[in-house]
Amino acid sequence: MTLSPLSPDATPKPSPRPPAGASPAAGPAGAGLRFPPDFMWGSSTSAYQIEGAAREDGRTPSVWDTFSHTPGRTEGGDTGDVACDHYHRFRDDVALMSRLGLGAYRFSVSWSRVQPTGRGSASQRGLDFYRSLTDELLDAGITPVLTLYHWDLPQELEDAGGWPERDTALRFADYARIVADALGDRIQLWTTLNEPWCSAFLGYGSGVHAPGRTDPADALRAAHHLNLAHGLATQALRDALPAAAEVMVSLNPAAVRARSDTPEDRDAARRIDALATRVFTGPMLHGRYDEDLLADTAQITDWSFVQDGDLAAAHQPLDGICVNYYTPSVVSAVEHREDGPAPERRDGHGASDHSPWPGADRVVAFHQPPGEQTEMGWSIDPGGLTELLHRFHREAPGVPLYITENGAAYADEPDGEGRVHDPERIAYVQEHLAAVHRALEEGVDVRGYFLWSLMDNFEWAYGYGKRFGIVHVDFGTQRRTPKSSALWYAEVARTGQLPEA
Question: Where does this protein have compositionally biased stretches of type Pro residues (predicted)?
């Protein structure tokens, strides 16, 4: 594996956009801002997106294996069969993280690698991979942060009904206990679910994510059972882990803006906030589903799948709340739409004739805000991150916050000398870190930032067509090349400060 030098002299100077309303001479947003000395600087990945080794050492198919091998589901027919081959190259990848000065690394565990049928006994070969990865991280002085579930449900559990079935939540708690028993002596920071909104509403509503089902009632059932799974898994982790271990969840709440201040547009924002955010924060943080959510979806389901004790089980004390943020949503009442049909998705991964917004799809329109966009077509608005951090600070007082995903896709490729320059990504990250710093200054307890992603990877339905990494991956040769953003981020992690121009 060939790496670029990481000396201070090699670190490129960023060329970020000035903040809105500023002259170019104003310099980078937030230049010179300092973060607390113990602030955690990391990067994130997920199992199916980087590991490869899809059929090795007893691993069985997940829903993403099946989905990506179904013609027409992913761009170019791409699959995660090899991805970044991290399963075989993890030691080199950890060495690269160390060279970049990362203090923490957030990864997910492949459920079907650890528990091939989704139930019953564990695969020790699968657990051994995560033991080895964790030991390598610890030896390098990098804090491991483990996510139990990043969308890769074992196919056998999907064949039995998947997340719309209650039993899947029970199986998830068993799986959590297996991983905790194996790695609890090594790992202190644990997250149960990553972005359950995507699992429920893109997997079972619009069908643009695995398993590709399109039933709005099933999407709501899946959301509830993911809430239940989080609570049961949290209980299982606390039973199995040392007292000092911390249990969290990673959510992708929506920063929703009404397009105008009319009552109709404000109501559209309320509806999307209920389906995007409060459907999870209600049970997890408050032990309830809000009445407006239940009323909005009453024609789709009567919510009779919510059993006595479920909401209490979902409402477990948390040691941290993790926020994933990329872009806001701008909505209006559907009769106010002026720019064509409303997009069916807010995260840009493909098109569908089905909506991920049960109860809102016929009455709410989405709008593309003006201004710059990333390669995903997502608008760039760091203020949404500050808003969300304040929201969770108010809603869960005393609970520390982490940003576990934030980043941008750009079409960056090596130049003639093999270097990869991505000033747009540097600008994006610097602006969002300035937004995090703003929240810190205003009293929000933010403990860490994990950039998405460590390296270019399998980007779900987009296959290998979108690059989020700060490390470029040539998927033919598996050559890793740190981009300008990697060298820039290494300097941020080293100094705890946003660089001057």
Answer: 11-21
- Average model confidence (pLDDT) across the chain: 92
| Token output for 54 | 């899809």
Residue indicated by tokens 């934030």: 406
Alpha carbon distance, N-terminus to C-terminus of the chain: 31
Find the mean pLDDT for residues 407-426: 97
Tell me the domain boundaries of the chain: 8-495
Give residue 293's pLDDT. Answer: 98
405 is catalytic: yes
d(CA 240, CA 20): 49
Query: Which residue in the list 344, 405, 459, 491 is annotated as catalytic?
Result: 405
Q: Which two tokens stand for residue 264?
A: 């109709």
Residue in this structure with the two tokens 């997910």, named with its chain if needed: 108
Gap between the Cα atoms of 46 and 49, Å rounded: 5
Q: CA-CA distance, 232 to 225, in Å (whole number)? A: 10
- In CATH terms, the superfamily for domain 8-495 is Glycosidases (3.20.20.80)
H or E element at residue 448: strand 446-452
Report how far apart, in Å, the C-alpha atoms of 123 and of each of 114, 126, 341 are: 5, 5, 48
Q: Scan for tokens 């991920």, then name that residue.
A: 356
Strand order, beta sheet including 329-333: 256-258, 329-333, 364-367
153-211 tens-digit pLDDT: 999 999 999 999 999 999 999 999 999 999 999 999 999 999 999 999 999 999 999 99
